[in-house]
Design a protein that fits this description.
The chain is of the alpha/beta class. It has 13 helices and 5 strands.
């Protein structure tokens, strides 16, 4: 049986975890139960390949390399299902590698949201997590973490969760991968989940499954404390409901103005609009 692979790779705090657990209701789909490391695994194989003695002497056989990477990918997931949905923000950086292995264009669901709402979500988690998270973040830059403005600047840096994901997305578009992407606006999923899921299935070109948006069981597991230092980062509600915009309330109007209208993906014309 030939397996199909799809990827979820976008911005943080955009309901990608909710999306995974909705998709997991479909018994034909295998959805990774945590942020996947498959792209890192394949990346390491690719980088190690030309360091092996035999390949230094004989040169790289790209067909052999593809077969090894394809075999690794096929056996990475413990499933016999036809469709695999792999969640990992690293995929946007290695789409050339993914397509080398797949031998066709990738399909990437890209969850997105207003940047100021993403930052407000991080800020709310920071405030609600009491001393543990605050101490961990303060180790990064003590003085910058003393204000809302500073914390937002910190999270937006190129080596921090929001800034890194933002730059990866922009870079993937600059590299010419726009036609592989479906931009899933978080508000569309939470306000009209059935229509948004139909759009996603149309993008994936597979038969639609009737999902239960009132009873979403969380099967995904993330180590939010030890890995992400933000307890509750990947916890979802069982019912899909609209999410109120709270950026101005949480960040204040001055900080919000800094991040107004920087959602560049809304100024381009993606191929996949339903």
């Amino acid at each position: 049986m030939k397996r199909e692979y799809f990827f979820i790779s976008g911005l943080p705090r955009t309901c990608s975890t909710l999306l995974c657990n909705i998709l997991a209701q479909n018994e034909e789909l295998f959805v990774t139960k945590a942020t996947s490391g498959c792209h890192d695994f394949l990346f390491n194989i690719r980088n190690l390949w030309n360091q092996l003695i035999e390949h230094q002497a004989e040169g790289i056989n790209h067909e052999q390399l593809r077969n090894v990477m394809k075999g690794a990918m096929e056996n990475y997931y413990l499933t016999t299902k036809k469709y695999v949905v792999d969640k990992g923000r690293g995929w946007l950086s290695v789409l050339e590698m993914a397509e080398f292995v797949l031998e066709k264009k990738a399909k990437v669901i890209v969850p997105v949201r207003d940047i100021k709402e993403i930052l407000a979500s991080f800020e709310q988690l920071y405030r609600n997590s009491v001393s543990f998270t605050q101490w961990e973040i303060e180790k990064t830059d003590y003085f910058k973490t003393q204000t809302v403005k500073g914390r937002c600047e910190l999270w937006s840096q190129e080596n921090q969760p929001v800034g890194l994901a933002f730059n990866k997305l922009k870079d993937a578009i600059d590299r010419g991968f726009l036609d592989r992407m479906y931009f899933m606006e978080m508000d569309n999923l939470t306000n009209n989940p059935e229509q948004e899921m139909k759009n996603i299935y149309n993008f994936l070109e597979i038969d639609y499954y009737k999902h239960d948006f009132d009873n979403v069981e969380q099967i995904t597991k993330e180590d939010d404390i030890n890995v992400h230092n933000l307890p509750g980062l990947h916890t979802i509600r069982s019912k899909v409901l609209p999410v109120r915009h709270k950026a101005t309330e949480i960040l204040g109007p001055s900080v919000c103005n800094t991040y107004n209208n920087i959602e560049f993906w809304r100024n381009i014309k993606p191929k996949y609009i339903f």
